[in-house]
């Protein structure tokens, strides 16, 4: 009986380790499948985690040869972690690395407690990220031409509620063929619907997919949020990424593997 109990505990421990540290790819095709696609990778909520059972972060991202890498916040919880994460991101082979801040860029750990950073410390964190050849989009747009199409990537700063601003009119947005919106928190969906913001794909993180899922359902504070892709209408797609790391208070995952989201957009 004791042997069976020990075996069950070992199996559970192995399952938790696998659920926490084995990264899974989620692939989504937008538009008609064609020979030529633009490949977007979204990573989110690393919280200092860059090494996994099936490879390092850079290796896993480089495996899909991305045209864009979009990072939707919460790189780290401490300055030491941030330096390590940025060192790993520098190994990613992609010229277009884009970042929007999360709540953990706004908060730091002081004596084991989260504390809001000063404006000076926050700006220093963003400069450190920018110095790693990562474009920081804090309520900023990033226009780019791909082939004969005009793309716009816009990054919202909703690292604190009420910080998100759209500094481009909905009318001007209509001039773009492809619009990608980035934010950290899924609360941005309310803003986008209220302001009738057009987009093809809105990418967020923050929820970690709940980290604990039972029978395909999220357990805990984010149980009312979906995981993965949701179609809002014929054009709009809203994606909530499970993230790669774990929260400080709950350092495990269960049936909610860390995720790298890969989007293929046909030209």
From TrEMBL:
Describe the location of the Calcineurin-like phosphoesterase domain by residue ranges.
39-209
Q: Which InterPro entries match?
A: Calcineurin-like_PHP, Metallo-depent_PP-like, Metallophosphoesterase_sf
Superkingdom, natural source: Bacteria
UniProt signal peptide: none
Which GO MF term does the entry hold, naming one?
Answer: hydrolase activity
Q: Which Pfam families match?
A: Metallophos
- SUPFAM superfamilies attached to this UniProt entry: Metallo-dependent phosphatases
Name of the molecule in the record? Calcineurin-like phosphoesterase domain-containing protein
């Amino acid at each position: 009986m004791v042997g069976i109990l020990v075996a069950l505990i070992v199996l559970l421990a192995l399952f938790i380790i696998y659920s926490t540290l084995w990264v899974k790819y989620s692939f989504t095709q937008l538009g008609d499948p064609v020979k030529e696609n633009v490949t977007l990778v979204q990573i989110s909520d690393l919280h200092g985690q860059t090494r996994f059972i099936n490879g390092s972060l850079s290796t896993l991202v480089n495996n899909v040869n991305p045209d864009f890498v979009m990072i939707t916040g919460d790189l780290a919880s401490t300055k030491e972690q941030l330096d390590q994460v940025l060192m790993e991101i520098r190994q990613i082979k992609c010229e277009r690395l884009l970042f929007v801040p999360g709540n953990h860029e706004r908060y730091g750990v002081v004596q084991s407690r989260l504390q809001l950073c000063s404006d000076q410390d926050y700006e220093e964190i963003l400069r450190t990220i920018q110095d790693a050849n990562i474009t920081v989009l804090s309520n900023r747009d990033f226009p780019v031409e791909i082939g004969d199409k005009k793309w716009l990537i816009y990054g919202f700063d909703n690292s604190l509620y009420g910080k998100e601003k759209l500094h481009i009119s909905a009318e001007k947005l209509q001039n773009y063929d492809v619009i990608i919106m980035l934010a950290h928190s899924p609360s941005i969906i309310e803003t986008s619907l209220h302001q009738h913001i057009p987009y093809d794909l809105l990418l967020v993180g923050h929820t970690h997919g709940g980290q604990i899922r039972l029978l395909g359902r999220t357990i805990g504070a984010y149980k009312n949020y979906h995981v993965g892709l949701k179609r809002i209408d014929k054009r709009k797609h809203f994606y909530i990424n499970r993230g790669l790391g774990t929260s400080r208070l709950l350092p495990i995952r269960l049936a909610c593997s860390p995720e790298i989201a890969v989007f293929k957009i046909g030209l």
